[in-house]
Write a structure and sequence with these properties.
The protein has a 3-stranded antiparallel beta sheet. α3 crosses α4, α3 crosses α5 and α4 crosses α5. The chain has a domain of 103 residues: Winged helix-like DNA-binding domain superfamily/Winged helix DNA-binding domain (Arc Repressor Mutant, subunit A, Orthogonal Bundle). The protein is elongated and about 75 Å long. With 166 residues, the chain is mainly alpha-helical. 63% of the residues lie in helices and 8% in strands. It comes from Blastococcus aurantiacus. Pfam families: MarR_2. One of its GO terms (biological process) is response to stress.
Length: 166
């Protein structure tokens, strides 16, 4: 029996990445990041729809507006915070306006700038939905255990490096 076959017969894997403690290949890491994002996003979106009649994107937009000074944010600020395109933020804010959760207003200094302002109904909805969102996300992320700080730090470094330079 040749030497490599002898090693395989003793249970040594052909692929060194299969050995415990060996760093995963970039494709594996990327797949896990995409899977986790997709699964958590779908789960949280579903809970927000069921319990609060709002999408995750709508909730995130409401939260950004609520956290802005005077509960008022420009459309470009909302788009930037959520990573949405101009049509994407327009569509999201239009749904929030139709639901009576925000008002769309022209800027005081520059009439070309549109702002989204929280309504009292929007304030109530974002407050109630935030509890559902935050509790579910916290519950899912407890599975990181003692690795939470390390994972958060690593993802922050990757996010910072990947930030688009304009």
């Amino acid at each position: 029996m040749p030497r490599s076959e002898d090693a395989l017969a003793r249970g040594i894997p052909r692929d060194p990445a299969a050995l415990p403690g060996v760093a995963p290949r970039p494709a594996e890491t990327w797949l896990r990041i995409v899977q986790v994002h997709d699964r958590i996003t779908r789960r949280v979106d579903s809970a927000l729809h069921r319990q609060h009649d709002i999408s995750l994107t709508g909730f995130e937009a409401l939260r950004r507006i609520a956290e802005s000074p005077g509960e008022r944010a420009s459309m470009s600020e909302v788009a930037e915070a959520l990573g949405l395109s101009r049509p994407g933020v327009t569509s999201t804010v239009s749904r929030l306006v139709a639901d009576g959760l925000v008002l769309r207003e022209r800027g005081d200094a520059d009439r070309r700038v549109l702002h989204a302002t929280l309504t009292p109904a929007g304030r109530t909805r974002v407050t109630e939905a935030a509890r559902t969102h935050d509790e579910l996300v916290a519950h899912l992320l407890t599975l990181l255990g003692d690795d939470a700080a390390v994972v958060t730090d690593a993802l922050a470094r990757v996010s910072s490096a990947a930030r688009s330079r304009r």
